[in-house]
User: Fold Peptidase M61 from Qipengyuania gelatinilytica.
Amino acid sequence: MAQANTKEVTPIKLTVDASDTGRAIFWASQTFPVDGHDGQIALTLAKWLPAYHAPRGAIDRLAGLDFRVAGQSCRWRRDPDNPYRILVDLPEGAVLLEAAHQSLSPTQSNQGRIMVSDEILRFHWEECLLYPSDQPIDNILIEPALRLPEGWNWACALGEANEQQAAAETSLLHFAPVDVRTLIDCPVLAGIHAHRETLDKDVGLLIVADREDQLPQGTEELECHRRLIAEADALFGHRPFGKYHFLMACSDQVGRMGLEHESCSEEGVRATYFSNWQSSTTERDLLPHEYVHAWVGKFRVPSGNYQSDFSRMTNELMWVYEGLTQYYGHVLAARCGLISPKLTREAFALIFATYDNRPGRKWRPLADTDNDPIFTAREVQPWQSWQRSEDYYSEGLLIWLEADTIIRRGTDGKRSLDDLMRSFFAPEASGGDERRRRPEPYGREQLIEALETLYDHDWTGFFASRVDGVAPHAPYAGIENSGYRLIWQGSPSGWQADDQTHHSYFDFSYSLGLKMGLGAKVLDVLWDGPAFKAGMVKGMEVLSVGGVSYSHAAMQDALDLLPDEGGQVELVVKRLDSVKTLSLECPCGQRYPALEEQGDGPRLLDDILRSRAGT
Ligand SMILES: [Zn+2]
Assistant:
């Protein structure tokens, strides 16, 4: 949070009616003090949104612009050099500019992530907020108000006593004026079916769901989330925020998501996250991941990510921002019991195998994948394994596992990466001030310095080779150092079976070099693998395998019949109008990755995943 200079600043009023959930339209009105503006004011919508790492502000959804001074309509036009800037003509002597506009939220998923249903509402202030583009965002004050559907429960990190039900007569919520940066970091979650949980006196969890029976019924599931807070405290020692809110939607209607903020986070999981707890395993590192971001990414933020306004940003150090967060997301999930150590090891095996099978690292350094949010916006790519896709998350995890094991081995277990989390990402506030803290930007040199202080090692060279260089294989040393090795087995691990169900795929990556989706569709083809060499591409339909109509079981049978040294699998495939018979040279039968204990040394991974909080 940045402290706005409140002296002499008249707030811009922003009132949004978000109760039109049936049409997913946010109706906004704003008033701008324009005294002193000479004939024109330049307004802007936020373009570079921090957690998106991309110029993804919702300018395309802004509609119905109407500007008036004293009831008289004002002309506006767009800045040809920057379509996020709106130039509004002002009559002489104008004091107050009134604006009305709408933000048109997606009504079906091909327009973007669905944020509004008849039961759930996710509201992001920045979609409705125009502000002067020529002033520092920390000095612009906004006085926000929001109308919610009557009787809905809601939560928002703005203000203190803000968790309550929007009563019929007070469904218009008024908040105290805040600066633009803070407002944009405080989204609202609301819903008609809601469960409110106190995880800690300062940490709240609001859960909304499509239906009442999808809210948590048991206590054990919530107990794990409570232990998460205790484990994070044991890890970091200090909190950079005063109060924190998890804004969680269990829904198959509004979009899945995970978005970090300084004092809250937004989680969108499957509707059955709680109601079918046994099978939600692979989603359970989401809350730990977003919570870790309060320290890694929000409080300690890469310098290029932290700018004076939202008109620009440099993506950098994503292997820290997301890679270290991915690592500790999994580690904390294991420490607090959300995911068992066994499933965590299975997750690490799948991560290593997946990334080791992506030949894109032979030409593209990991650091260059920092640009992927800008390039692809997570849209499907034709050759993901060759293009790479935000690999800094999971390959980053492998790098940090290795760093952790190097420190642990080099110091006989006296120190670990946990010490870096305390010293660098959660230093004690001077004067013992434990309230919400101003972000502290950092660069790579400072991070390396902190690591060197912790354990004397060539960290500059360590990251240069893994992050800036190209290599044929994914980092494996962390797995080996931690007392395990990768093995192949004939059936998927529990983690992978859940992952396949969750993402609706069947993994033939490690035999045929392809993944099948629902309905016999090819979901992915690994660059340079057997399917690639035979001419297969993503999106093909497989009509038959070995002369039998395609099914995942038929494919599995065909692979199981192959001798150990491999053989040929014949597929009839269809792409566009063309049907072809292809012969795939498969080097081995069907196989899946797992970890196996190796050697007599200490199982560092077991120790890494062990609870620290003693809860
Ligand atoms: Zn993240």
